[in-house]
């Protein structure tokens, strides 16, 4: 074998190094299409040649008797790989012999004719030859270190075992260890011909086997039930594969096609030994998306080692694919035993069983032993949504269930909605899903519109009602039978949230209330999908259920019974920010959003909580004041702030780690994952230990918090950091005993190195009992050895290992004393010649020791799981601690935000009862837009705003020039209101306001092509939602309503909306360029006029901006300087021609527009004078209009 190694080329491109890099780009490299030699795997049984060998059943390959095959290819000819035809047995799969070298020698050793003796890393199923050996493990990854490859090919991982077994004659341990080598490849280092023209060999386009299959053609493809695409019953998750084709395949490939037919929408990672193989259309995905290379053969084939599963599956899932992990669930030895028990003769049974252990798609991520926790802290929701129309009324009723599978958090709820789907759109904006499940029946028009717009880029799957989208009754029955062990009437195991959704008249507690039928139906869809992905046991066992109630619905969700509440104020727990407002104010999103600007959280779970706070600011005054008090105390105590942030910054994502550890400790019932044969378990064990110990150390680092915050006075900080038995009492849990238990239970350093837990004495009684028995047996062995030494009159030693242990090694001169009770096992010649014997006693000792060691191994294997399970028993305590620390993290983030930005304004919040006349108001002095960076804020001109209150109008009609800062001012007011009700300090000098229950925005102008809505219809839809849902406590921001239609129609609509909002008395900022609106409302006491202003020409006169050459006839000579200040009063002009000039429009066009503007304005003045005369208006008003009319020059 060592000679073989010397033949390898010296190339750094090893398989290990290949997978140590990130996946290659999707760009296909030149010459990626290989030639297509005949593949034994794709061929039927008739294509397999049968050849027997005397050594075929011995399991001991002998290279001296190997057949040698040479292939020499001349320059300019197509490369043809050698095809190795091994022995064919009904229980064996055909190997593929392929190489990418132009010239090589294939040494074919004796080939085993059954899977037991071909139990190497790949079990000889669908296994291509390759040009590498392996030797030793890589210390960094714990995987085998692969020898050099010139191209990406599958490494043969049994090479190093051949020498060991050839020398020792040992039989391999089936499936769980490396088996005997079946093929050895020696490469002959031959120089390529110098006269070869690289361009002479052209790769022809490859037509793969799956591209020629009739049942895969678009006009003939069907699902597993025979339904064609276009049928209402067609299920694109499955594929019909005819039996006639399956019967022509090898056993392993038949397995693949059967699994593929049931999971046609998945990329199968098909386990073969230590490798995940991708075949046919899946192999094309691997080459395109992961940068693999095709292996030679008529069918597409690629793959990667088990150790790379995390990165490969995560990459595909991130790109929108669904990945199914297929594992071997028995070893070749187990397969042989099964065949004996079942007395089967079919070749299709003589193959190791494989089962799908998990299906992963974006939205069902569960971080287990093979998948590490990602750096992305945002939750990825799987959403199931159901709907039903309401008879006699507009709108729909929706049931929703959305899950964060990474932490097992379920939200479900049911609500009615209007034609604009305001609540549904708000819900989707607060909890954006990455996977949507819906009923297969045709959705409503509104739902289709959402699918085309807001959810256009979200993966959707249709479920069949009844069988996949379960009814509420079926869902409750399943939960009772499989999760909670009985009906809800039996009590305690059922979550309180689910119990509130059950019909109280049903004694069994398995009938949903009428008002929750859709919600539980949506839950049924989620449960079915988790079941299909084989995640139901893991996620449901951890499930925490919370009811989702729309923020504007007038009822409370309690832990007992959800009921309608008469007092609407109690329902206003949170400020409502709908999807339009979140988008218009840029509250959430990437760079430049409010969340991005103020996020100084140290932990991932803190960042998630901050997002929830910003999307739903509090409407409870006492809660906001407590947050303000806590933030102020943290700002004043900078040392405390920095110390606690240092602790929080070292924490892992403990919320997800908690769910992960729960999965580690879960005893799955009849799940394929329990039967899976994994070859990198030592690596996974190390990862488990690393994550568990990191979580444990994270909780341990939080223990000093009560002492650190012992002197604080803030009520909220006391509750978050002080224990229940302290004075004052808090809610921080006492975790010392639990942490001490796990600290002393096992050696953490050894566990990190070995990946397993060896318990300290006293932790596990069963392990201690076995250890004691082994200790006693060793004592017996020592006593027996002393007895034998005395018998022979010399020093006798034990010799041997494993199954040959405890042989008595006696010097040859003393061995003559051995009687018939001593069985000679071997001799040693030479200077210190000895003889080795077994006796009945030593055989008994060996058998007893091996039984004890097997028991100890079994106990240790399950001990780690039981340690994790014991940790999860206190799940509620750990979870409660994380929630408290998350709140503390958000408060420190608000304090750090205020400290770094130099914010000193603590908003004064009042209830309406505390104001004069009970009027809502908002007053801001010198406010600054909070999303600006520090550099931009220095040049930003602050503005004050006063809306409502004693003696002031609740509606401000805002005018000003184009680009004068009207929209910016409106957004600024909205964002400052959000910050105030989060509990943050503001970038302003002062702020006083009553609480706001909802912010509405109608800003900007755009159409909705996908929904078929024009710009004006979009404006009216948004305005309609405002008029329906706004209350006297709302803040409404309307920007230039009516500009999307004719001037008169737009003016009329805008005027009617202004009247409605003025009567409603909600705080409103309404910007417009319709100056006749200003004329209509300038004397209305309900409405105040305001515009952007600064001192003009130093003369004390106020105007919208500084203007030069305003009186000239040439608008292109007019220069406008924007001053971005707000004050009372109306702006006389909009200075639209200045905007045209800034946009670079031709001068002639601007002049012509100016002339037309004067003409139109002159005609309007004439009509206005006529109307005044007819109405017998005061003479002074008519005179002013006449003077203005005469001033027009043409």
UniProtKB/TrEMBL annotation:
**Comp. bias regions, Basic and acidic residues:** 68-81, 155-171
Q: Which UniProt keywords apply?
A: ATP-binding, Coiled coil, DNA damage, DNA repair, DNA-binding, Nucleotide-binding
What is an annotated GO biological process for this record, any one? Answer: mismatch repair
Q: Residues annotated as region Disordered? A: 1-138, 155-181
Transmembrane helix among the record's keywords? no
| PANTHER family attached to this UniProt entry | DNA MISMATCH REPAIR PROTEIN MSH6, DNA MISMATCH REPAIR PROTEIN MUTS FAMILY MEMBER
Return the protein name: DNA mismatch repair protein
Originating organism: Anopheles arabiensis
């Amino acid at each position: 074998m060592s000679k073989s190694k010397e033949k390898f080329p010296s190339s750094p491109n090893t398989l290990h190094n290949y997978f140590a890099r990130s996946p290659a780009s999707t760009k296909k490299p030149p010459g990626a299409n290989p030639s297509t030699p005949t593949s034994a795997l794709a061929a039927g049984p008739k294509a397999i040649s049968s050849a027997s060998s005397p050594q075929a059943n011995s399991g001991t390959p002998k290279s001296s008797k190997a057949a040698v095959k040479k292939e020499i290819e001349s320059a300019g000819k197509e490369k043809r790989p050698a095809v190795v035809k091994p022995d064919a047995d009904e229980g064996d799969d055909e190997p593929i012999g392929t190489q990418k070298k132009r010239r090589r020698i294939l040494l074919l050793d004796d080939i085993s004719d059954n899977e037991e003796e071909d139990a190497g890393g790949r079990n000889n199923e669908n296994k291509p030859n390759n040009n590498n050996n392996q030797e030793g493990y890589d210390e960094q990854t714990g995987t085998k270190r692969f020898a050099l490859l010139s191209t990406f090919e599958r490494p043969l991982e049994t090479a190093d075992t051949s020498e060991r077994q050839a020398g020792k004659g040992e039989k391999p341990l089936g499936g769980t260890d490396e088996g005997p080598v079946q093929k050895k490849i020696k490469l002959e280092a031959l120089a390529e011909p110098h006269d070869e023209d690289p361009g002479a060999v052209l790769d022809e386009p490859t037509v793969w086997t799956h591209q020629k299959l009739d049942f895969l053609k678009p006009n003939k493809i069907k699902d597993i039930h025979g339904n064609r695409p276009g049928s209402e019953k067609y299920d694109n998750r499955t594929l019909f594969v005819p039996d006639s084709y399956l019967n022509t395949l090898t056993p392993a490939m038949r397995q693949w096609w059967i699994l593929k037919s049931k999971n046609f929408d998945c990329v199968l990672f098909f386990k073969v030994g230590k490798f995940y193989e991708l075949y046919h259309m899946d192999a094309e995905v691997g080459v395109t998306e992961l940068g693999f290379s095709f292996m030679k053969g008529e069918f597409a084939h690629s793959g990667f080692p088990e150790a790379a599963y995390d990165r490969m599956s995560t990459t595909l899932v991130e790109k929108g694919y669904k990945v199914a992990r297929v594992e071997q669930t028995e070893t070749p030895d187990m397969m042989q035993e099964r065949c004996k028990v079942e007395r089967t003769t079919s070749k299709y049974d003589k193959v190791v069983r494989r089962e799908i252990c998990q299906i992963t798609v974006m939205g069902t991520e569960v971080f287990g032993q093979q998948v590490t926790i990602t750096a992305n802290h945002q939750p990825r929701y799987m959403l199931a949504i159901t709907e039903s129309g309401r008879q006699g009324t507009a709108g729909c009723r929706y049931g929703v269930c959305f899950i964060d599978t990474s932490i097992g958090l379920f939200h479900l709820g049911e609500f009615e909605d209007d034609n604009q789907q305001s609540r549904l759109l708000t819900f989707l904006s607060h909890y954006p899903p990455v996977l949507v499940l819906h009923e297969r029946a045709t959705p409503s028009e509104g739902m289709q519109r959402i699918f085309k717009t807001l959810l256009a880029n979200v993966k959707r799957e249709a479920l069949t009602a009844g069988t996949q989208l379960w009814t509420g009754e079926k869902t409750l029955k399943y939960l009772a039978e499989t999760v909670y062990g009985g009906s809800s009437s039996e009590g305690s195991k059922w979550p309180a949230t689910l119990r509130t959704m059950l019909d109280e008249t049903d004694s069994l507690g398995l009938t949903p209330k009428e008002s929750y039928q859709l919600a539980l139906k949506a839950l049924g869809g989620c449960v079915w999908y988790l079941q299909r992905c084989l995640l139901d046991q893991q996620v449901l066992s951890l499930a925490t259920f919370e009811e989702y109630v729309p923020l504007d619905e007038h009822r409370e969700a309690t832990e007992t019974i959800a009921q309608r509440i008469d007092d609407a104020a109690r329902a206003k727990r949170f400020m409502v920010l709908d999807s339009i407002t979140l988008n218009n104010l840029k509250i959430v999103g990437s760079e430049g959003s409010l969340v991005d600007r103020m996020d100084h959280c140290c932990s991932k779970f803190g960042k998630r909580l901050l997002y929830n706070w910003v999307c739903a600011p509090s409407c409870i005054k006492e809660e906001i004041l407590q947050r303000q008090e806590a933030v102020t105390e943290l700002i004043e105590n900078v040392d405390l702030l920095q110390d606690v942030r240092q602790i929080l910054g070292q924490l892992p994502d403990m919320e997800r780690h908690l769910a992960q550890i729960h999965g580690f400790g879960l005893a799955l019932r009849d799940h394929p994952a329990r039967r899976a044969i994994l070859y990198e378990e030592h690596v996974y064990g190390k990862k488990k230990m690393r994550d568990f110990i990191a979580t444990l150390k994270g909780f341990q680092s939080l223990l000093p918090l009560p002492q650190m915050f012992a002197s604080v006075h803030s009520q909220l900080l006391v509750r978050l950091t002080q224990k229940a038995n302290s004075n004052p009492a808090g809610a921080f849990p006492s975790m010392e005993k639990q942490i001490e238990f796990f600290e002393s239970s096992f050696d953490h350093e050894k566990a990190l190195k070995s990946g397993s837990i060896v318990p300290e004495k006293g932790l596990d009684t069963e392990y201690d009992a076995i250890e004691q028995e082994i200790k006693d047996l060793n004592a017996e062995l020592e006593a027996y050895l002393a007895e034998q030494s005395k018998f022979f009159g010399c020093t006798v030693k034990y010799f041997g290992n494993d199954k040959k242990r405890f042989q008595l090694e006696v010097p040859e001169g003393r061995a003559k004393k051995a009687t018939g009770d001593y069985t000679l096992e071997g001799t040693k010649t030479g200077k210190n010649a000895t003889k080795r014997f077994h006796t009945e006693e030593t055989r008994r000792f060996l058998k007893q020791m091996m039984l004890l060691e097997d028991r100890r191994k079994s106990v240790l294997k399950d001990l780690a799981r039981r340690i994790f399970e014991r940790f999860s028993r206190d799940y509620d305590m750990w979870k409660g601690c994380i929630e408290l620390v998350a709140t503390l993290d958000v408060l420190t983030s608000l304090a750090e935000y205020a400290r770094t930005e130099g914010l000193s304004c603590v908003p004064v919040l009042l209830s309406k009862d505390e104001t004069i006349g009970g009027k809502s108001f908002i007053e801001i002095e010198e406010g600054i837009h909070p999303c600006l960076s520090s550099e931009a804020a220095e040049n930003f001109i602050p503005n004050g705003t006063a809306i409502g209150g004693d003696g002031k109008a609740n509606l401000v009609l805002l005018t000003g020039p184009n680009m004068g800062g009207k929209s910016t001012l409106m957004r600024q007011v909205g964002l400052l209101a959000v910050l105030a009700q989060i509990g943050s300090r503001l970038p302003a000098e002062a702020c006083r306001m009553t609480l706001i229950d909802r912010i509405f925005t109608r800003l900007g102008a755009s159409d909705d092509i996908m929904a078929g809505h024009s710009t004006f219809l979009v404006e009216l839809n948004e305005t309609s939602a405002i008029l329906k849902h706004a209350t006297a406590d709302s803040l409404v921001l309307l920007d230039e309503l009516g500009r999307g239609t004719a001037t008169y129609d737009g003016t009329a609509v805008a005027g009617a909306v202004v009247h409605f909002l003025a009567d409603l008395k909600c705080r409103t900022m309404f910007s417009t360029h319709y100056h006749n609106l200003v004329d209509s409302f300038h004397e209305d006491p309900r409405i105040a006029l305001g515009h952007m202003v600064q001192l003009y020409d130093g003369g004390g006169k106020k105007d919208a901006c500084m203007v030069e050459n305003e009186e000239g006839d040439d608008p292109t000579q007019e220069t406008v300087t924007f001053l971005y200040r707000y004050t009372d009063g109306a702006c006389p002009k909009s200075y639209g021609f200045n905007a045209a000039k800034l946009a670079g429009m031709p001068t002639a066009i601007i002049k012509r527009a100016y002339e037309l503007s004067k003409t139109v304005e002159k005609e309007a003045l004439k009509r206005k004078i006529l109307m005044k005369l007819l109405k017998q208006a005061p003479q002074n008003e008519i005179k002013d209009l006449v003077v203005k009319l005469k001033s027009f020059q043409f």
